[in-house]
Specification:
The structure is a single chain. This protein has 5 helices and 9 strands, in the order βββαβββααβββαα. By secondary structure, it is an alpha+beta fold. It has one domain. The strands form 3 sheets. It has a 3-stranded antiparallel beta sheet.
């Protein structure tokens, strides 16, 4: 008698169309994003730019650049033209409209709300978690109360 094959994770067929009009106002701390349905979300500048803390370093998930824990280096990286062009290659995905998910590669995605990298097979599970829902709610609330400097 044969043994059934192990079930493989379902790969999502992700269409990469931008859903966010990055009508982006940004100070050093926050970025205001306008969705296609005209709703606004406010997220941290680091999250928008893909800057995550890995151990004792900052890492840009889009450029794959590591930096020391120095805010001046981090801000300088965000202002580099190479970083800005790199951001354009990773638009937010249509399939996850308001969830601000970007495709990094065939196997990985980045959530700008939660500032985390995940496997593409875990995206649907991720957006249904309480943590992600709380971050989305915070971003919506910030949009109604946020006053830029």
């Amino acid at each position: 008698m044969s043994v059934p094959a192990l079930r493989q994770p379902k790969m999502l067929n992700i269409v990469q169309k931008p859903t966010v009009n990055v009508q982006c106002f940004s100070d050093d701390q926050s970025v205001i994003l306008t969705l296609k349905d005209c709703r606004k979300l406010v997220i941290s500048s680091d999250s928008y730019h893909g800057i995550v803390m890995v151990g004792i370093m900052y890492k840009c998930v889009f450029c794959a650049v590591e930096m020391e824990l120095d805010n001046k280096l981090k801000e300088a990286h965000k202002n580099l033209m190479t970083h800005k062009k790199c951001l354009e290659r990773y638009p937010h995905l249509e399939d996850f409209s308001e969830n601000l998910i970007r495709k990094l590669s065939n196997n990985s995605l980045y959530c700008s709300l939660c500032n985390v990298v995940m496997m593409s097979t875990a995206a649907t599970r991720h957006v249904s978690t309480e943590t992600h829902k709380e971050q989305l709610e915070k971003a919506e609330i910030k949009a109604t109360t946020y006053k830029p400097f």
